Amino acid sequence: MNELGRLEDLPPDYVQALRAQNLVPLWPSLRAVLPPGKPRPNTRPTHWPYQALRPLLLQAGELTPMEKAERRVLVLANPGHGLEKMQASAAMYLGMQLLLPGEWAPSHRHTPNAVRMVVEGEGAWTNVDGEKCPMQRGDLILTPTGLWHDHGHDGTEPVVWLDVLDLPLVHYMEASYHVDGPRQSVKPGHGERAWLRGGVVPMPVFQRSAQAYPLLRYPWTETRAALQSLAADQPELQAVQVGYVNPETGAAAQNILGFYALMLRPGQTLRLPVRSPACVFHLIEGAAQARIEGESFTLAEADTCCAPGYSEVSLANTSASAPAFIFIADETPLHQKLGVFENRD
Ligand SMILES: [Fe+2]
């Protein structure tokens, strides 16, 4: 491959003349924007142990009252992007959010899509588009683009959840904004009562629902049971994995990021295919080891780590007796919609 000319090979007054006209020569930067063979990601394999994060998050509860925070969140920032960018990968933002008993995170809506993966505590709820969703460990709750949401807490202990948003992408597109609103009234009924049974969907007088997001809460008890049934009934399955989908369309639950739950059998090691999207792994239950591009992270419960796209990843259950359950978020729907998705296996 040819060595291309560098900026310093050009006469300084020529570079200055270009700059004065808002012009830039491409060739000194060509290899950086079109590297050979595969991308050079800023996203680095990074591990956020919950044991280190938790006391700092609880301290935020003492230091900053809710009215000064609106959302009391410590962002899991990838150092490869620079911490101030507040992104885990090119398209994913991760935050650990704390809500104390009696607190209320006021109602708003925004263009980025969000989901919550509940980490600890009982008694909190998220009201999404008038549907009051209880928050229990391992539950996945959607707050898709444009839907009003607020968070409240009627319990007695702190509640923590992991937020996953497509904020970096929507912000990069200069399409990110929010609107504050009044406290939302709660409607009767829950999507999960109508849509959570596989194989049947509500179809009154032969009409399918026109709701874009009919199912907002995916209870962990159901997801975990689905994984255990798969594992028990299909012992030959190498990867016991489910995806969170929109029950009306069968497509990914949200437009930009994909969400999955994986069960590793006792002692199992699973090598993932080399794929273009970046991935986030959050250990719901058990003990695991993640190997990402040769780096090894020991995951305890509630730990989170991320892998850049195009990387070699393997996940191992380090317990010989208990299963491990991992929540995965990735950029697959985005890559597929843009036509840049690759699986190199
Ligand atoms: Fe929000």
UniProtKB/TrEMBL annotation:
Phosphoprotein found in the keyword field: no
Q: Where is the Cupin type-2 domain?
A: 96-164
Q: What's a Pfam family in this record?
A: Cupin_2
The membrane spanning regions, by residue number, are none
Q: Which SUPFAM superfamilies match?
A: RmlC-like cupins (SSF51182)
**Does the record bear Oxidoreductase in its keywords?**
yes
Checking InterPro entries in the record gives: Cupin_2, GDO-like, RmlC-like_jellyroll, RmlC_Cupin_sf
Q: Which UniProt keywords apply?
A: Dioxygenase, Oxidoreductase
Which protein are we looking at? Answer: Cupin domain-containing protein
Q: Please give the organism.
A: Azohydromonas lata
